[in-house]
Amino acid sequence: KAVVSTQSTGFSPEGRIFQVEYAIEAIKLGSTAVGVQTKEGVCLAVERRITSPLMIPSSIEKIVEIDDHIGCAMSGLIADSRILIDHARVEAQSHWFTFNEKMTVESVTQSVSNLALSFGEYDRKAMSRPFGVAILMAGVDENGESVLLHMDPSGTYLKYGAKAIGAGSEGAQATLEEQYHKSMSLDDGMKLCLNVLKQVMEEKISSTNIEVGICRKSQEIPGKFHLLQKEAIDTLLSTL
């Protein structure tokens, strides 16, 4: 019988924190999310798992806005992600209120990773276990740079050109490594995201069972993050 370590804050004799490893495994059960960063902006696409015909698909939110220039896609335990997202939104707004400038995508991700690391602390706000969610943070900074960051339950965050998380992420990541190139346009990036989702999804891909969010660089001001409407997703899918 395997012995499961339930202690979230202690190291094992081999130097591992098993609860963090279990949380990373939990993400592999979540729905697939893909992010692509291009010179023109960033794109996020996520599968919506519709388990019943009585479910209203629009009520499944897997991509959310953090600030008007930052969006976030998640995979894993979505209830856990709400705590991180609320924290990110408050941090972004308080930074803007205090310094009269938009918070960078990396700074927002760092503040979220600090919260993700605070599990097991004797604090009313802290979780007693790691957050069972991975996030893709995407946006365009005030200097016009488009950024895509991935953060896992260990609180580690890294910049990526393209990244897949959730179920089937290994196959999806292999496809991204083959097909992604830095010089691609945002439209090509969006098509790549959808092609990758099409490969890994069990259901037939449609505008109902996916969500797509983009942040396109504009000429004068940093881009605004927004979710694509059903019609725009249908148009994209028809080009695949």
Which features would summarize this protein structure in a list?
240 residues; five-stranded antiparallel sheet; 23% strand; alpha+beta; globular
How is the topology of this model organized?
Layout (H helix, E strand, L loop, with lengths): L17 H10 L5 E6 L2 E7 L15 E5 L2 E7 L1 H22 L5 H12 L16 E8 L5 E6 L5 E3 L2 E4 L3 H11 L6 H15 L9 E7 L8 E3 L2 H9 L2
Antiparallel strand pairs: 1-2, 1-8, 2-9, 3-4, 4-5, 5-6, 6-7, 9-10
Helix pairs in contact: 2-3, 4-5
Describe this structure in words.
- The protein is an alpha+beta fold and 240 residues long.
- The protein has six helices and ten strands; from the N terminus they run H-E-E-E-E-H-H-E-E-E-E-H-H-E-E-H.
- The chain has helices spanning 18-27, 78-99, 105-116, 169-179, 186-200, 230-238, and strands at residues 33-38, 41-47, 63-67, 70-76, 133-140, 146-151, 157-159, 162-165, 210-216, 225-227.
- The strands form two sheets. It has a five-stranded antiparallel beta sheet. It has a five-stranded antiparallel beta sheet with strand order 3-4-5-6-7.
- The longest helix has 22 residues, at 78-99.
- The model has no long low-confidence stretch (mean pLDDT 90).
